[in-house]
């Protein structure tokens, strides 16, 4: 019955924006989802985020992206980078970058690293965190070239 309810929630996620936090926690409560089930759920959850005509509120996007950042098994980094590129919301961008850290690879990190200089402080930290997907020498050179010098930034 719990799985049947999951399908009902996922299919109607666009109507449930105010309870996005509970949706995220509910989806993450399933620890036995197969790859096929995760892919199906992820596709449905990302659909509203990709909408150009009627995008969801940042609150919903934050919690849905939290699902993808929680485990690399959700792995939709390519779609998340596209969302990052198209979004104007700093909140959505930051959470998208955190997804890149957890499930992305070098190519996704390369796609976002150039935004470091003009980013807000929180987005900068997220980009720095996601830059761990770069090669060691490439990351070292990139950090030097961009003047990464703060105490917290050096720790990350």
Short descriptors:
about 160 residues; mainly alpha
Kindly describe this structure.
- The chain has 156 residues and is an all-alpha fold.
- The chain has one domain (2-155).
- Helix content is 67%, strand content 0%.
- It has helices spanning 2-11, 20-28, 35-50, 58-70, 77-86, 90-103, 106-113, 121-130, 136-145, 151-155.
- Helix 2 (20-28) packs parallel to helix 4 (58-70) and helix 4 (58-70) packs parallel to helix 6.
- The longest helix has 16 residues, at 35-50.
- The relative contact order is 0.09.
Roughly how much helix do the residues carry, as a percent range? Answer: 55-70%
Helix-strand string: HHHHHHHHHH
Based on secondary structure, the structural category is mainly alpha
Helix segment count?
10
Q: In what range is the share of β-strand residues? A: under 5%
Number of strands: 0
How many individual domains?
1
N/C terminus separation: 43 Å
Overall 3D geometry?
A: elongated
**Arithmetic mean of pLDDT:** 88
C-alpha Rg (nearest Å): 16 Å
Biggest β-sheet: count, sense, barrel? none
* Spans of at least 5 consecutive residues with low confidence: none
Q: Which oligomerization state do the chains in this entry correspond to?
A: single chain
